[in-house]
Amino acid sequence: MTTQLFAQQRDDGTVDAGVVKKRAIQCALSRICGSCGKSLTWPVAFVGSAEEAAALLFAFPPLHPSCAEELLRDAPGEQVLVRTGGFELVRPTRRGDPVSFRPNSVIEDD
Ligand SMILES: [Zn+2]
After folding, report:
1. Distance from the CA of 30 to the center of ligand 1, in angstroms?
2. pLDDT over threshold 60, residue 33
3. Distance from the CA of 85 to the center of ligand 1, in angstroms?
4. CA 36 / ligand 1 centre spacing (Å)
5. How many domains does the chain have?
6. Among candidate residues 64, 7, 9, 4, the one with its CA nearest the CA of residue 34
7. What is the Cα–Cα distance from 23 to 72, expressed in whole angstroms?
8. Alpha-carbon dihedral sign for residues 87, 24, 79, 54
9. Is the Cβ–Cβ distance between 93 and 39 less than 8 Å?
């Protein structure tokens, strides 16, 4: 199965291995899922490395929890999932650097 994630699709239809910055910003401002491109619901989930989870700073845009779980299945290993009630977009301090996402009010698993 080829997964085409919303946040990795360039305007010309090609796919970025990382995250397309324009899409990442779009996800944040329009509150849409980085995987399916539909409106986010509550809670929001982030998927990233253990380091990203520890720092609470993610490169990949917010996701539906179900989309996040699907991503984890497709990319097993060190990836972790964090659920949160909200997030903020962190703009880079240096021009040209990627944006990142800071979840707030992290929801702990039972
Ligand atoms: Zn989704």
Report:
1. 13
2. yes
3. 16
4. 4
5. 1
6. 7
7. 20
8. negative
9. no
Question: 52 C-alpha to center of ligand 1: Å?
Answer: 20
How many angstroms does the Cα of residue 47 sit away from the middle of ligand 1? 12
Please give the Cα distance from 83 to 106 (Å, whole number).
6
Assess if residue 27 is contained within a domain: yes
- Residue 29 CA, distance from chain mean position: 13
Query: Is 1 part of any domain?
Result: no
Given pLDDT bands bounded at 50, 70 and 90, which one contains residue 75? confident
Please give the residue range of the domain that contains residue 95. 6-107
41 C-alpha to ligand 1 centroid (Å): 9
Q: Are 69 and 33 in contact (CB under 8 A)?
A: no
